[in-house]
Write a structure and sequence with these properties.
- By secondary structure, the chain is mainly alpha-helical.
- The protein has two domains: 394 residues, no CATH class; 135 residues, Alpha Horseshoe (Serine Threonine Protein Phosphatase 5, Tetratricopeptide repeat), CATH 1.25.40.10.
- The chain has 25 helices and no strands.
- Helix 3 runs antiparallel to helix 4 and helix 14 runs antiparallel to helix 15.
- The chain is globular.
- About 1% of the residues have low confidence.
């Protein structure tokens, strides 16, 4: 119950307050849960069926870990791996709870979801009433007259909010089915109603589709499983039927249907973006490194492959493509196999009286579909929910196998040493991130010298961190210490030669004194991100300032070849057009 409350009800709000703190909290919690789960006297044996799923998981994890060492940005990759390992430890710790306290754990997850669904649904409702302005990249220009707003709740992205609510909605339905009194069932239905409305307000078509597919899968397994209390199942079913019918009516009467229908328009901005991402991957498939560029480096290396400019995505909107770019071909293959074995493990429980199975099947199916067109597995609150689903699948392999063997002294010592090392590393990463955040806060409050002093102290501890070096370069630049700024940006580029923004900043620093060096830096930036309208605009202005009109025209004309259209949204390309017309 404690895990369910923390992961489902508390963690999203900690994440909203401070992402670094949320990750560190998760890492601490995961260590405790893994440690206590490992030393649980009632722990089930590591049998063949359970071992197979673990082998597939760790085969995939090995390919991910390998990518850290060949990463274009090891500091980014390592911190992401530590976070990933926390999610895996959490899953293993939770699996022990499922095995030892199955009913209490499942009901705790469902009850926490009902509470979270009510809260987040209410937040979405209030946001929808207030109707804050929609950021220009969140919606196709042709749809702006139809929709007043697009809700993201406490999240920064409405698609992630929709993905989170979709799984919460499914688990809330689980609460409606498993609640002992009809009063509690009715309360759960109200929570599901609010949660469902919240999902509609996100305008996330991927979340809508994944939820529907997940619910369909769950219904199939409810039919397969023949529950004991048919009367209560009928009551719960009628309740859910009424609330889903009401939500569907809201969908039809309100403007939401137009958002769904727009998915069929080839000119739709979101559809066009996703199509262009896929085209870029197909075009450059032979150029991708076999072992990938490194975990958590997508936004650094994708620009060299993209075929249009504008607001390029921070994620691939497809987990398999994302993994292909970051961790390589073998990793993507193991990820696919892992997904298959998770489903197989869940499916193996179909003939049991497992109260949670239909809803965990529905949640897993929803997650799988989401990640074919999104990146919910990459974001902490939804990633934690996926760990819960994996824990359920992993525990389902060991419902009644033999007796627990005594844990050897060597195993105990190894686990203790591992947990201590892990906590030390996660604490170190959190300290660095906290100091960086404090430095940025000082910068925003115009306390430049204090910000520099703090970041200089961080750079002594984390001297191989390209982000710290570049941020320090930016601070020196603001403080008019151009010599130090050049030194730090050059060091950042040495640590991570794949980051185009470092060369763009160096070009700005070299511009007053060294034209040839400036050109070289702009060319390097455009080599790494040829579709960037901002780099091309800056380079063209520099060339015009040095009376190289023809070269400037070539740079701008090449830039227009990367235009995604929608110049009302991507105003950089409109500026390129205007500059070309003026020439």
């Amino acid at each position: 119950m404690v895990a369910a409350i923390f992961l489902i009800a508390v963690l999203p709000f900690v994440y909203f307050y401070d992402e670094a703190l949320a990750i560190f909290s998760l890492e601490l919690f995961s260590c405790v849960y893994f440690f206590t789960g490992y030393f649980n006297k009632n722990r089930k044996p590591f049998v063949k069926q359970k071992a197979l799923l673990a082998i597939v998981l760790f085969s995939w994890l090995f390919t991910v870990f390998r990518s850290v060492f060949i990463s274009v940005s090891p500091d980014s990759s390592f911190s992401a791996f530590i976070k990933l390992f926390a999610l895996i430890m959490l899953a293993f710790g939770l699996s022990e709870r499922f095995e030892s306290f199955y009913n209490d754990t499942v009901k705790g997850i469902f009850a926490s979801s009902a509470f979270a669904g009510f809260i987040h649904g209410a937040i979405a409702l209030l946001e929808y009433i207030e109707a804050p302005a929609i950021p220009i990249t969140w919606l196709d220009p042709s749809s702006r007259e139809v929709f007043r707003t697009r809700c993201a709740g406490i999240f920064t992205d409405p698609n992630i909010f929709g993905s989170f609510l979709s799984v919460i909605f499914i688990f809330t339905l689980g609460y409606v089915f498993t609640a002992e009194s009809r009063k509690n069932k009715n309360v759960g239905a109200l929570s599901a109603l609010l949660c469902g409305f919240g999902i509609l307000t996100t305008l996330s078509r991927g979340s809508w589709i994944s939820l529907c597919v997940g619910l369909f899968a769950g219904i199939i397994y409810i039919i397969i499983q023949k529950g004991k209390d048919r009367e209560e199942i009928k009551y719960s079913g009628r309740l859910i039927l009424v609330l889903t019918a009401f939500l569907f009516l809201v969908f039809l009467i309100g403007p939401f249907k137009y958002r769904f229908i727009s998915i069929a328009k080839p000119s739709d901005m979101t559809f066009a973006q996703r199509t262009l991402i896929n085209k870029a991957f197909l075009r450059h498939l032979s150029d991708l490194p076999i072992a990938g560029h490194g975990l958590h480096t997508f936004n650094q290396v994708y620009p060299r492959y993209r075929i249009v400019g504008g607001d390029y995505p921070m994620n691939a909107h497809n987990e398999f493509l994302h993994s292909l770019l970051e961790t390589g071909f073998l990793s993507s293959f193991f990820l696919f196999v892992l997904c298959f074995y998770i489903f197989k493990s869940l499916h193996s429980l179909r003939k049991t009286e497992s109260i949670g199975l239909p809803f965990f099947i529905a949640a897993y199916t929803s997650f799988f579909v989401q990640n074919l067109s999104g990146f919910s597995s990459r974001i902490l609150p939804t990633a934690a929910l996926f760990s819960i689903v994996y824990a359920y699948a992993y525990s389902s392999k060991t419902k009644s196998f033999g007796e627990t063997k005594k844990i050897s002294f060597i195993s105990k010592l190894a686990v203790i040493v591992f947990v201590i090392m892990y906590l030390t590393l996660s604490g170190y990463i959190y300290y660095i991130q906290k100091q960086i955040a404090d430095s940025v806060y000082l910068l925003k409050n115009n306390r430049i010298e204090e910000s520099i002093d703090k970041l200089e102290q961080v750079s002594k501890i984390s001297w191989r961190n390209s982000f710290v070096a570049s941020l320090l370069g930016q601070l020196y630049m603001i403080n008019n210490n151009h010599v130090k700024a050049v030194e730090m940006y050059e060091y950042a580029a040495e640590l991570n030669p794949s980051e185009a923004s470092f060369y763009d900043s160096l070009a700005v620093l070299y511009a007053p004194t060294d034209a040839d060096k400036t050109k070289q830096m702009y060319e390097l930036a455009l080599k790494l991100d040829p579709a960037s309208e901002n780099y091309r605009l800056s380079y063209a202005r520099f060339l015009l300032k040095h009376n190289e009109k023809e070269e400037a025209k070539k740079v701008l004309e090449k830039g227009l070849e990367f235009s995604p259209g929608f110049h009302d949204v991507y105003t950089g390309f409109r500026k390129i057009e205007s500059m070309l017309n003026s020439l």
